[in-house]
Design a protein that fits this description.
The chain is of the alpha/beta class. 48% of the residues lie in helices and 14% in strands. The chain has six helices and five strands. Strands 2-1-3-4-5 form a five-stranded parallel β-sheet, with helices on both faces. The protein binds 5-O-phosphono-beta-D-ribofuranose (RP5).
Length: 166
């Protein structure tokens, strides 16, 4: 049974969505992944989002681009948290996707990450699950510690070599 559902409107979203999956893999969190379009196959989408809770899903990560309905419609049909990932677009640089996802009307929130923020979406889903799962919380703390160690190592190298040879 998957704890997280990752869904994207098109396979063109995969380069971003794989970042979310990689983070869930890193934290040992189970997930399902689907390509489902809210506007190209509305009946299939409705069934997918409507049955997510009974499939055992606790968080949905939904990525979409342009007039990005998918995350908002997930939030309308699924009673637990939805994280939205706006895709970069060639015409409007992803602002179209960002505004479509972040500007949800009152009552139907979508936790929106940055344009192309697949990795952060995976981490945020892990943080939501960590509220009731101490083992995920410990993995998140270890991940934070490893990031700190990486920055410290970079600074040590800078202090040793100087900026000219960095
Ligand atoms: C959205 O339209 C998808 O999420 C994708 O980001 C965008 C373009 O889709 P394709 O034309 O690449 O299939 O539904």
């Amino acid at each position: 049974m998957a704890q997280v559902a990752i869904v994207m409107g098109s396979d063109s979203d995969m380069p971003v969505m794989r970042g979310a999956a990689q983070m869930l893999d890193q934290f040992g969190i189970s997930y399902e992944m689907n390509i489902i379009s809210a506007h190209r196959e509305p009946e299939i989408f409705f069934n997918y989002a409507k049955t997510a809770e009974e499939r055992g899903v606790k968080v949905i990560i939904a990525g979409a681009g342009m007039a990005a309905h998918l995350p908002g419609m997930c939030a309308a049909l699924f009673p637990l948290p939805v994280i939205g990932i706006p895709m970069h677009t060639t015409s409007l640089g992803g602002r179209d996707s960002l505004y479509s996802i972040v500007q949800m009307p009152s009552g139907i929130p979508v936790a929106t990450v940055a344009i192309g923020g697949g990795k952060n979406a995976g981490i945020l889903a892990a943080k939501i699950l960590a509220v009731s799962d101490p083992s995920i919380l410990e993995k998140l703390k270890a991940y934070s510690a490893s990031m700190q160690a990486e920055v410290e190592a970079k600074d040590s190298r800078l202090q040793e070599t100087g900026w000219k040879d960095y």
